[in-house]
Amino acid sequence: MSICAHVAPLGGFVMALAIVAAPHGVHAGAWTLPEGEGQATVTGTWSNATHAFDAGGNTTATPRTEKMELQGLLEYGATDRFTVILNPGLQHLDIAAPVNATRSGFGYFELGGRYKLFGGPSWVISAQATLRAPGVFEPLNAAAIGYTDPETDLRALFGYGGSVGGMPAFVDLQLAQRFRAGTPPSEFRADATVGVTPWPTWMLLGQSFNVVAEGSAPPIFPNYAYHKLQLSVVHELTSAVAVQFGGFTTITGHNALQENGMLLGVWYRFGGKDIGLPNSR
Q1: 3-state SS assignment for residue 143
Q2: Are 243 and 265 in contact (CB under 8 A)?
Q3: Secondary structure class of 16 (helix, strand, coil)
Q4: pTM score, whole prediction
Q5: With contact defined as beta carbons under 8 Å apart, do 155 and 163 qualify?
Q6: Of the candidates 39, 18, 20, 17, the residue with the CA atom closest to the CA atom of residue 28
Q7: Is 72 exposed, middle or buried (0-12, 13-18, 19+ CB in 10 A)?
Q8: d(CA 170, CA 111)
Q9: CA dist list (Å): 167 to 73, 116, 199, 234
Q10: E strands, the chain, where?
Q11: DSSP for 210-278?
Q12: CATH (residue range 3-280)
C-alpha cells in the first residue's frame, strides 16, 4: 500500500495530519536543576480532530483523527549549570475512513541537555540542544508520515520569576530551530508559558505552542503552520509529587489539523528539596 493511495482521496488532509500529529515534546522551563537533583514527569494526552485549516486558514471537515500519547521527561542536574534531558514517548494514532490508517508504538526518543548561560536572583537565560530519534520506520503507513526521520532541536530560553497581584508568578519564553532530516521541512518554533500560584499548592498555567514550517516538499508536505493554546492546573500533593490536568486546542493555522484534547500528568522531584513549582526555582 503506497502513501499516494492514502493521499489521493483527501488532498492536503493527510499532509496536514502528519505534520500536526508530530509531538511538540515535553520541555521544561529555562531554569536548570541544582547538581544532584532530578525531576521526572509522565504526561498522557488525548486529542481528536474532525476539522483542519486549509491553505487559506479556513476550517474544513476532515475524517476523524484520534491521537493518544504517553510521554516521559527525566531531567537531572549534572552540575548547577547543566541539566541532562531524556524524553521517551509512546503513541497511538488512528485515522478514520477513507484513509483507514492506524499506528501504535514508540514516538520520538529525545536526548540532550540545557545549559545556564546567564542568570540573576529572578531570571535566567539558557541554551538547550536535543537529538530526536524516531521510534517508527513505516514510510508507507499514512499514520506514520512525519515520524520516520531524525531531528535536532536547538533552543534559546528565558525565564523570569516575580509576582502578580501579590501572587508568585513566572514567565518562560523559548525560541527554537528544529532541523528535520529527510523530506519534512525544518521548523521555527516559539513557545511561551505563564504560571501563577494563587494558593500555596496550586499553580495555574497558560501555554502557547507555535510552529511554522520553513519551506515545503509537495505533495506530501505543503507549507504549514499551527498555533496551540494549552491551559492547565498543577496541584502539589506532597513535597515531591504534583499532578497536572488541563486541555489544549489548535486556535489557528494553515494546512494543519484543528486539534482539541486534554492532558493528565504526574511530576516527581527527587534528590533534593521540595518539588518547587517553577516560579520558586
Answers
A1: helix
A2: yes
A3: helix
A4: 0.87
A5: no
A6: 39
A7: middle
A8: 26
A9: 28, 26, 8, 15
A10: 38-53, 59-77, 82-87, 89-95, 101-106, 109-119, 123-133, 151-164, 167-180, 187-199, 202-213, 225-236, 241-254, 256-270
A11: EEEESS-BTTTB---EEEEEEEEEEEE-SSSEEEEEEEEEEEEEESEEEEEEEEEEEEEEESSS----G
A12: 2.40.160.40
Distance CA 36, CA 273 (A): 11
Contact by Cβ (8 Å): 202, 234: yes
Q: Which three cell numbers stand for residue 266?
A: 504526574
Contact 26, 73 (CB under 8 A): yes
pLDDT at 134 (0 to 100): 93
| Domain residue ranges in the chain | 3-280
CA atoms within 13 A on the CB side of 126: 24
Which tens digit of pLDDT belongs to each residue from 91-114? Answer: 999 999 998 899 999 999 999 999
Predicted confidence (pLDDT) at residue 1 exceeds the cutoff of 80: no
Joined grid coordinates for residue 232: 492547565
